[in-house]
Amino acid sequence: MTAWALVNSPVNAGVRIARHNQHKFKGESAFNHQGSTMKFREVTLASGQSFQVPQGIQRIDSKSTHGWQVRCQGTKLFSDGESADAQLSLAKATRELAARISAMPAPSGLKQGPSANKTSDLPAGISGPIVRQRAGRAPSAVLSVLLPRFGMSAEVKTVHIASENTYTVEKYLTALAKSTEMRAAAVKRYEQDALQAQHSTIVSLRKQAQALRTHRA
What we know:
- It is a single chain.
- By secondary structure, the chain is of the alpha+beta class.
- It has two domains: 3-32 and 112-200, no CATH class; 40-106, no CATH class.
- It contains four helices and eight strands.
- It has helices at residues 3-7, 10-13, 86-102, 169-214, and strands at 40-44, 50-54, 57-61, 66-71, 75-79, 126-132, 140-149, 152-163.
- The strands form three sheets. It has a three-stranded antiparallel sheet, with helices on one face. A three-stranded antiparallel sheet has the order 6-7-8, covered by helices on one side.
- Helix 3 (86-102) runs antiparallel to helix 4 (169-214).
- The N and C termini lie far apart (82 Å).
């Protein structure tokens, strides 16, 4: 059996053929990769006061309770108190939210291992060999590499292995090594960006909490 025959034999080669454009990859969730990933919304109280409130904090107004509740890694209520100071209680809640986020690992939606539905033993984020059929040319094989990008859709790159006439196991292994390096570099960058975004979120929340304390009516 030739090396190219292994490409077309999933059982013997330990891979599955994926025809060109057969698989579409879903990108990562969209974040503001330029800084904080925290989203804010405007909350207007019955008193007429309006605040920009970060996600993870909810307003509670009932007959017996008025305050802001932190909902992140558990819950904690910061009451307006007898002075009915909603701005000060929001400042305290915001500071608490920042503290809780700082104690959490950086957010990451990356899978650490291959999908349960994956039929090959290739590393996570790498698929193939993919056979490309082009008019007037010999069939060629490539590996597909999913490169995650924090805050943006993932990018898909292909790594050429060889044509049907030049395919060898050695060329396949060389392409696999290159694909693995590309994926590892992208994952490292993704994790660095996620960590930076978390840091920016914490800084933003702390600044907001300080501003709420400083500019009280």
